[in-house]
Amino acid sequence: MGAEVLEETEFQPMFDEVKGKLGGKKVALFGSYGWGDGEWMRSWEEDCKANGVNLVTDSVICNAAPDDTALASLKALGGDLLRLKKQSSLEKRVTVGGWKGNVGRRIDRKCSADPCRNQDGEFIYLPI
After folding, report:
1. Using one digit for the tens of pLDDT, what is the confidence trace for 9-40?
2. Mean of pLDDT over the chain
3. Contacts of 42 (CB under 8 A, 6+ apart)
4. Residue 47 in contact with residue 18, Cβ under 8 Å?
5. Which member of 80, 88, 94, 110 lies 3.0 to 4.6 Å from 57 by CB, making a disulfide possible if both were Cys?
């Protein structure tokens, strides 16, 4: 038996391709293992941090299939990500076209990548 590592045939090569594109993104790690003590997760976390990946919550790891504790941890991780997404949506309303975007103001219509106006006529941008 060798050292604990991420699955080397498919997952590690895929992750190596995308990790450089994850800088500035909110990321959470989770996974299971069949032997050892979870060293692979610690190594994965270190690799992510070294490559500028923003780990936003504690990683979830379990041995074999998730038990009740691991399932509760995964639900909490999902809740953390959802709260961060909602918070990020409010914080990322940015200034567009010289007009100030305001957090928490009512929006008259939904927008994607195009600027629109809030109820005060100010241009804002809503990331989706």
Report:
1. 888 999 999 998 998 788 999 998 888 888 99
2. 75
3. none
4. no
5. 80
